[in-house]
Amino acid sequence: MTVPGRRSSTFIRLLRSGFTDPSAAARLLDADALASVRTDPVLLDALGATADPDLALRGLVRLAEAQPPDQLPGLLDTLVSAKPLRDRLLGVLGASEALADHLARHPRDWLALVTYEAADLHPGLPEFEQGLADAHDPVALRVAYRRCLLSIAARDVCGTTDVAQTAAELADLATATLRAALRIASAAAPEDAARCRLAVIAMGKCGGNELNYVSDVDVIFVADAAPGADEGKALQSATRLASHLMRICSETTVEGTIWPVDANLRPEGRNGPLVRTLASHLAYYQRWAKTWEFQALLKARAVAGDPGLGVQYIAAITPLVWQAAERENFVADVQKMRRRVVDNIPAAQVERELKLGPGGLRDVEFAVQLLQLVHGRGDATLHSGTTLDALHALAAGGYVGRTDAAQLGDAYRFLRSMEHRIQLYRLRRTHLVPEDENDLRRLGRSMGLRTEPVAELNKAWRRHASAVRRLHEKLFYRPLLDAVAQLTPGETRLSPRAAGQRLEALGYADPVAALRHLEALASGVSRKAAIQRTLLPVLLGWFADSADPDAGLLNFRKVSDALGKTPWYLRLLRDEGAAAENLARVLSAGRLAPDLLMRAPEAVALLGDPENLRPRTHEALEQEVLAAVGRAGSGEAAVAASRGVRRRELFRTTAADIIASYGTEDSPAETDHGALVDRVGEAVSDLTAATIAGALRAAVRDHWGETLPTRFAVIGVGRFGGHELGYGSDADVLFVHEPREGVDEQEAAKAAQTVISEMRRLLQLPSADPPLLIDADLRPEGRSGPLVRTLSSYAAYYRRWSLTWESQALLRAVPVAGDDELGSRFIDLIDPLRYPVDGLGEEAVREIRRLKARMETERLPRGADPTLHTKLGRGGLSDVEWTVQLLQMRHAWAEPGLRTTRTRRALSAAHAAGLIPTEEAQILDEAWVLATRVRNAVMLVRGRAGDTFPSEARELAAVGRYLGYQEGRVGEMLEDYRRTTRRARAVVDDLFYGS
Q: If pLDDT is split at 50, 70 and 90, which confidence band does 610 have?
């Protein structure tokens, strides 16, 4: 019986040692098989040092219980006395459930880990062939294979070998296995073996000496007739041998399988003969082969069978491989293949895909292979099938920067290590990062991350994947500069034609113009040109990540022409990585932000620090605008100064919006789209209010000095009053005045009219800036009523004549400029109208519904698609806003939270008050946010306002990119919009129309 205190202390020690289930671990330690070592502190510490102490202990108990009684003491004595064996055995048991199963079935195989000699530390092909020599049937081959695999895994988890050495050992073991399988197949059919010469060519990771723990082993078979044999019969014999070899490795037996042997990389794939002669191979490659087949042949290596024939095959195909880059559409074919791989990944798995996803292993391999094929034509040092060796050769030859090569190599090693550890656990072929917390913990600990293994693993993984994505693009573009800078003459320099093809393949619609821009930016020996050559490879990749890379490159040239001689500009882009990436995003996202920047190029300085992109407060903006107006000598000069502030701040807002929507290498795209919309609405509304305040101050000063004869206030209504302005929104306002004491009412009214006219004139002076239109059509009596009224006139009108729609329009009224006290009194006047006591009567509700229904049928533009119109369409802005406003007018008298001018806040308050269920509130909010973002995107992309999606393909793609949809996903974007607004309309029908 265990004493409670001792049990408690054991529990705590197990917990501290890294066991996640100390109670179960304590029971396992009490197993009879571990009686002699259960209290040994060395054993417990060694278990705690493994990737998964619980798994290691379970495996150890199973292994101990499987030992014959006379063998158990030897295992346990060696375990506690020999550190190398202890670390190896427990390391494997803590990392691989599958190898623990093998040891339980073959309890004497642990002895394979006891020896610790030089040959054992770094075995090669001869040692593995010796390990498989006694296997004469498929079952024995599997047992021997796993015994060898056990030793590889032990060296791997203990750090005796690094990831490259482990991958090479796995490839050597695969080579030995293929040879053993061919030996077994030949022994079963000696007549076939005598009739032919058969060579096995390893492809893929096996051919490149960089195999995984569990992977298809890609092969190609080449055969010839033995002397005196008929070629046709020899090929039949070779086909039978090859098929048997594949079955020996692939079929499932009582000892499981080894790995599938895949011959689909052969000429014609599955449709072609399994075995061909060398002449047949060459005929196919010379006439019919596709680009990807030559890329695959980069890794071809003769591994088994007739060595002479294997050498002949490699010698014959090698020249063809290094001529592949001269093929028409070579780069386009390679890129298309990469995109196809990514597109075929199930959407639910993209973020967890370690091999094929963006920033994954395949990105490294494609980038390295592409550069090998391009530059290897004239440089034999690049002729390596091993990714890391090829990357080292590319760096040594100057084709890749040493820093870039080091970063890419580190990322590749890390990702391959993750892949190895994931596969080692159950010896299953997978490239998906697990989702289970325990699996991630074991994976992180196996990578040496012990403090916060899950958090540290995710952080390191994302960092390396981000580096791979960035460098994949950078390495692809760098050769373009050789073609245009004309500073590195030589046969291997890309021709302008080849560079143009590469640009076209990467999304540039006008590669000829793009090359001209590159030449203008990068040619010459000046310091400016040198820095541009450093920047351009990265910038080109970021431009290509947008829907309009041509515009991005053109805009960059324009900005560089304007600022290229300014010392801080290129220094900012070179030394501040965020500034260069942010600039690339902004310049290629559409017309509005670049147009703003072209008129104020110095605003590039805002892009160097995230703090610079935060919106400024209304108070700070108004203070700056009024100070600028005060320094100006005339109204025209004052409004020009105000426009300068507005231009800069609009650029700040658009840049921050684009960068947050696209994301950067170091910061993912903003996922809270509601927060994005709120920031834009707040920033543009505050900026509009400050600009109007500046125009008002200028108009008053030019005609009356410091004091207007009447007190005057501007009231924002509509989206302006709701702090929900978009980039292309008009400013809806009301004007109110009150004569100063002793001033005649007619004189005061004339002064108010004059100041409004002057404000409008100043704000509408010809300019290349986005216009700021003041719209007063929501005033009493609409366009038929006076433009400005006194406060008492408003009171009289609202008391006698006000219509329901006018009360509804006042829901979003808020003072934005002018006399604060007058503005506050105006709000006091209208509160009883917009928040009527006891709410709206039924007749008023019916009137609002009738007006809304009429607006839906009469105001939608002819030919517009009602499912895609963001303002008046089904489930769009109007639907959501009228629904929320009806709730406000019916219930705000009793629910103070509803007394707000902002749609989303009112919707949230209605939900909090129990007026709308959670799901329906979320549906309306999602639709409103999405429709608002679409309107903002249209303005950003086209440079002019619009309420529906663009019809031009590139503009539509740019809107999609802003909304988070990758290339080729615009159809999905439109369907998502329709689905979101369709659901919103169903809620509107229920809440607004009561249907």
A: confident
Tokens of 696: 């008002």
Composition of the chain by helix, strand, coil, percent to 5: 65, 5, 30
At residue 758's C-alpha, the angle toward residues 753 and 759, to 5°, is 100
Q: What's the rounded Cα separation, in Å, for the pair 332 and 502?
A: 7
Q: What is the C-alpha to C-alpha distance for residues 453 and 436, in angstroms, rounded to an integer?
A: 13
Is the pLDDT confidence value at 320 over 60?
yes
Would you say residue 233 has pLDDT above 70? yes
Calpha distance 492→501 (Å, rounded) = 16
Q: Check whether 490 has a pLDDT greater than 60.
A: no
Q: What is the pLDDT of residue 491?
A: 31
Residue 8, pLDDT score: 60
The set of residues, in sequence order, having a beta carbon less than 8 Å from that of 387 and lying 6+ positions away, is 208, 210, 364, 365, 368, 412
CA dist 719 and 732 (Å) reads: 7
- pLDDT at residue 281 greater than cutoff 70: yes
Q: pTM of the predicted model, to two decimals?
A: 0.60
What is the C-alpha to C-alpha distance for residues 638 and 620, in angstroms, rounded to an integer?
17
Q: Is the dihedral of CA 350, 355, 360, 366 positive or negative?
A: negative
- 10 Å Cβ neighbour count for 237? 24
H or E stretch including 631?
helix 618-631
Q: Give CA–CA dist 31/72, Å, rounded.
A: 13
Compute the average pLDDT of residues 411-425: 96
Average pLDDT value over all residues in the chain: 89
Q: Is residue 811 within 8 Å of residue 884, measured between CB atoms?
A: no
Cα–Cα distance measured from residue 773 to residue 781, given in angstroms and rounded to the nearest whole number: 20
Summarised one tens digit per residue, pLDDT across range 961-987 is 999 988 778 899 999 999 999 999 999
Query: Whole-angstrom Cα distance, residue 123 to residue 156?
Result: 13
CA angle 697, 703, 707 (to 5 degrees): 55
Scanning the structure block, which residue is given the tokens 């059509």?
777
Q: Are 947 and 977 in contact (CB under 8 A)?
A: no
pLDDT, residue 3, reads: 43
Rounded to whole angstroms, how far apart are CA atoms 63 and 93? 10
Amino acid at 549: P
**Res 808 pLDDT > 80:** yes
Q: What is the helix (H) or strand (E) element at residue 579, kind and residue range?
A: helix 577-587
Cα distance between residue 827 and residue 836, in whole Å: 14
On the CB side of 620, CA atoms within 13 Å amount to: 6
Q: Where are the beta strands (DSSP E) in 604-761?
A: 710-716, 731-739
658 vs 672: CA distance, rounded Å? 14
Give per-residue burial for 880-897: e unless 16+ CB within 10 Å, then b: bbbbbbbbbbbbbbebee
In the block, residue with structure tokens 């020896």: 115
How many CB atoms sit inside 10 A of residue 567's CB?
Answer: 8
CB 208 within 8 A of CB 386: yes
Q: What number of H helices and E strands is found in the chain?
A: 44, 10
Please name which of 990, 771, 727, 955 lies closest in space to residue 883, comparing C-alpha atoms. 990
